[in-house]
Amino acid sequence: MTLAFEAPRIQEVVGSLSRKMLINGEWVDAASGSTFDSVNPATEEVLASVAHGQAEDADRAVRAARAAFEDGSAWRKMPHGQRGRIIHKLGDLILDHLEEFALLESLDNGKPFAVAKAADVPLAADMFHYMSGWTTKIEGSTLPISAHDPDAYLGFTLREPVRVAAQIIPWNFPLLMAAWKVAPALAAGCTIVLKPAEQTPLSALLLGELAMQAGLPPGVLNIVTGFGDAGAALAAHPDVDKVAFTGSTEVGKQIVQAAAGNLKKVTLELGGKSPNVVYADADIEKAIAGSANAIFFNQGECCVAGSRLYVEESVYDQVVEGVAEQARNIKVGNGLDESTMMGPLVSSEQFDRVTGYITSGRDEGANIIGGERVGDKGYFVAPTILTGTREEMKAVQEEIFGPVVAAAPFNADRDILPTANNTNFGLGAGVFTRDIGKAYRTARRLRAGTVWVNTWNVFDATLPFGGYKESGWGREMGQAVFNNYMETKTVITDLS
């Protein structure tokens, strides 16, 4: 095994991080003094002990964010161009620390270092760079008066920050999900309390350090490390004006209930069970590679994973065998091994969940290709294909969040789209075909917030992302994200 980093460098990067919470520009211990362990899922060894933030710590962070926002504060009165330069500088600093971030993502989450270095970290930096330009481009409108003398009244709108935003992020893309939340909220002029997932807190702590270096005033970005109780305290806090959550649909529903106390604004990016439709007229080699990428990228720990594969009968065997061959060629191992293509699942809990679904599929009559544990240490599962599936199977209906795809054929005379849409989720979907008209019609009818045509897993800071149905509310990225963090105020002036 050829490691991207040797032990002394790993110890240097992890050891240099603060293990405390960032509140009001200072690194502080939890009020209780307690800590929790962050574990390397490849080795099952403890990486670091981190401050265990709870409700009291969430309250401290919210109060700091509120004070940082109030009229007269450095952040609220800062010229928009200067705010944009700080956000852009944070993107630059992320790139300056490219290898450190990639190392932390690999150690904490398990993903291959090479993937984090090539994708997660540059995309996170690009999010800050892109959003930095919006600080001077968020505009109101002057509106013509329709029912009154237009010379008597002036009507216009202002776009104003929603104020204090609590942001709760998942463990599958720790840095990138933080960037998706933090960058637009800063561009909008909000102040933030960020709660990273308890499984993967380390990259958020480095992000906090760099945010202060970039020049964010104290209290603008606060970071509370902890478990679900800290997130629940933020969602229910009366001085939080907005909560943005990415995670499971089950927890998303709890967030909505907790936010009802003061009717805070809520955006949710939740689960998925994305259908991938492959027609017989597709470029089969492209469809095979794209379908494998759709489900096996990031260990299948993707909310948009193409976990339901529907293939036209005449090419079904060819496509399934091609995806199976791709799966057999995926090197599963420690993310720091330079030859690794797929790392471990993030935790023992996730390992048990994924293998439980594989067992369920077998018990319900599916054929299993792959599915075995890899090695005897770490949370490694081989890429898995279920064939001979039926729509009512648990593994077909429920989100697995691992490298497991359920494949089924469909007849050319049958409309597959009602089946593809037969899910409570609607986050992602895909279609492979050479027929542009068929691609357009299929994309139109798929009930999902993102539809990929002849590709998968292409994201960009300019492209809105979010779900239909139980996959969530609102959109991340692009101009659309500012609907999450801005209020519209209408001003009417009597000119007489």
What would the keywords be for this entry?
496 residues; alpha/beta; Aldehyde Dehydrogenase, Chain A, domain 1; 2 domains; globular
Secondary-structure map:
Blueprint: H1 7-16, E1 21-23, E2 26-28, E3 35-40, E4 45-51, H2 55-69, H3 74-77, H4 80-96, H5 98-109, H6 113-132, E5 142-143, E6 153-161, E7 164-168, H7 174-188, E8 191-195, H8 202-214, E9 221-223, H9 228-236, E10 242-246, H10 249-259, E11 265-269, E12 275-278, H11 284-296, E13 308-312, H12 313-328, H13 348-363, E14 367-370, E15 384-387, H14 394-397, E16 404-410, H15 417-420, E17 428-432, H16 436-445, E18 450-453, E19 472-473, H17 482-485, E20 486-494
Parallel strand pairs: 7-8, 7-10, 8-9, 10-11, 12-13, 12-17, 13-16, 15-16, 17-18
Antiparallel strand pairs: 1-2, 3-4, 5-6, 6-20, 11-19, 14-15
Can you walk me through this structure?
This protein is α/β, with parallel strands linked by helices and 496 residues long. The chain has two domains: 7-270 and 471-491, Aldehyde Dehydrogenase, Chain A, domain 1 (3-Layer(aba) Sandwich), CATH 3.40.605.10; 275-460, 3-Layer(aba) Sandwich (Aldehyde Dehydrogenase, Chain A, domain 2). It has helices at residues 7-16, 55-69, 74-77, 80-96, 98-109, 113-132, 174-188, 202-214, 228-236, 249-259, 284-296, 313-328, 348-363, 394-397, 417-420, 436-445, 482-485; strands at 21-23, 26-28, 35-40, 45-51, 142-143, 153-161, 164-168, 191-195, 221-223, 242-246, 265-269, 275-278, 308-312, 367-370, 384-387, 404-410, 428-432, 450-453, 472-473, 486-494. The strands form five sheets. A seven-stranded mixed β-sheet has the order 14-15-16-13-12-17-18, with helices on both faces. A six-stranded mixed β-sheet has the order 9-8-7-10-11-19, sandwiched between helices. Helix 16 (436-445) links the parallel strand 17 (428-432) and strand 18. Belongs to the aldehyde dehydrogenase family. The active site is at 269. Pfam families: Aldedh. This is Aldehyde dehydrogenase family protein.
